[in-house]
Design brief:
The chain is mainly alpha-helical and 319 residues long. The chain has two domains: 105 residues, DNA polymerase, domain 1 (Orthogonal Bundle); 183 residues, Intergrase catalytic core (hpI Integrase, Chain A, Orthogonal Bundle), CATH 1.10.443. A two-stranded antiparallel sheet has the order 1-2. Strand 1 and strand 2 form a beta hairpin. Helix 2 crosses helix 4. The longest helix is centred in the first third of the chain and has 20 residues. The N and C termini lie far apart (60 Å).
């Protein structure tokens, strides 16, 4: 099949993003804008006729140099590493489209992201820290039962805080003999994915829901003074800020050295899966990441742990 120049594939790529990847209109707009920078670079470099099969590593390197040296005309500043990576991730996504459509081109893996020395380390909790946090709520009270169910659910599912807050009671079908459950949630970009509640999470949810005698549809609700007497249609659903405050409360109670947030539990969920040998693509599905490049941030954590294990076990002078 005769190939078109790369810059002629934008509309096909955006159709693919909408129909096959299910990306939101805003995400499609961003990807189109990021790719236009690459297309404009091709035009300026007299490469407007370059076809996918002709794109090579030298072109990628030249484009990365261009991004690194680019000065924003308005701000008079160079692009941040994170911004450079947005452009590179969009280009990588275009190459993934070529692979999906069997258009001969450079493999997406050849587009390496720019390293940012200023990037913060990913914060996650070790298993003993998680145990302290998850067991911290006083389950003799309904608030404690709610908080334990909330914490267990965050770690079991890897849900984003807004996704957890949006859950309704009718989504959680727990029978007496139920050990685990799975439900569909709608995440970023209106993307639907399945999340899984472990035996521990289900047990905590069961005990919490036994104490619910209200009619509010929300799974997690507030217990402010007088809230039980509220007969209006105003929901008592916990806000994102309220969920963050719940996590912060138990971090302080347990005296953890890491200032954990709901997102820390999401990081801990992903890190634990990778440490147990789950492959990156599967973790991507669990987290609901549209691009695996986002999931790859966790490999820095697990790679460091592998290095430490190697030094501790294999590095000994045993013979």
């Amino acid at each position: 099949m005769t190939q078109k120049p790369i810059i002629k594939y934008l509309s096909n790529y955006l159709d693919y993003c909408e129909i096959e990847k299910g990306l939101s209109a805003k995400t499609q707009e961003n990807y189109g804008r990021f790719l236009n920078k690459f297309f404009n670079w091709l035009i300026d470099a007299k490469l407007s006729d370059l076809r996918p099969s002709e794109l090579d590593s030298k072109h990628i390197w030249a484009y990365k140099v261009h991004l690194s040296r680019y000065i924003n005309k308005i701000k008079k500043k160079p692009l941040k590493k994170t911004t450079q990576n947005y452009y590179l991730i969009a280009l990588r996504s275009l190459l993934e489209f070529f692979v999906e459509k069997e258009i001969n081109s450079l493999p997406p893996s050849k587009v390496k992201l720019a390293k940012d020395k200023a990037d913060k380390d990913i914060k996650f909790l070790k298993l003993e820290q998680l145990s302290k946090l998850l067991n911290a709520p006083d389950t003799a009270t309904v608030i404690g039962l709610r908080d334990k169910a909330l914490l267990e659910s965050l770690f079991s599912t890897g849900l984003r805080v807004a996704e957890l807050g949006a859950l309704n009671r009718d989504q959680i079908k727990i029978k007496d003999n139920t050990d685990s459950i799975e439900i569909a949630v709608i995440g970023k970009g209106e993307k639907i994915r399945t999340v899984y509640f472990s035996k521990r999470a289900v047990s905590s949810l069961r005990e919490y829901l036994k104490k619910r005698f209200d009619l509010d549809e929300a799974l997690f609700i507030n217990y402010r003074r007088g809230a039980e007497k509220n007969t209006s249609d105003i929901t008592r659903r916990l806000t994102v800020k309220s969920i963050e405050d719940v996590v912060k409360k138990y971090v302080k109670i347990t005296g953890l050295p890491v200032m954990a947030t709901p997102h820390t539990l999401r990081h801990s969920f992903a890190t634990d899966l990778l440490n147990q040998g789950v492959d990156l693509r599967t973790v991507q599905e669990f987290l609901g990441h549209s691009n695996i490049a986002t999931t790859q941030i966790y490999t820095h954590v697990t790679n460091k742990q592998l290095s430490d294990i190697h030094k501790k076990i294999h590095g000994k002078d045993r013979f």
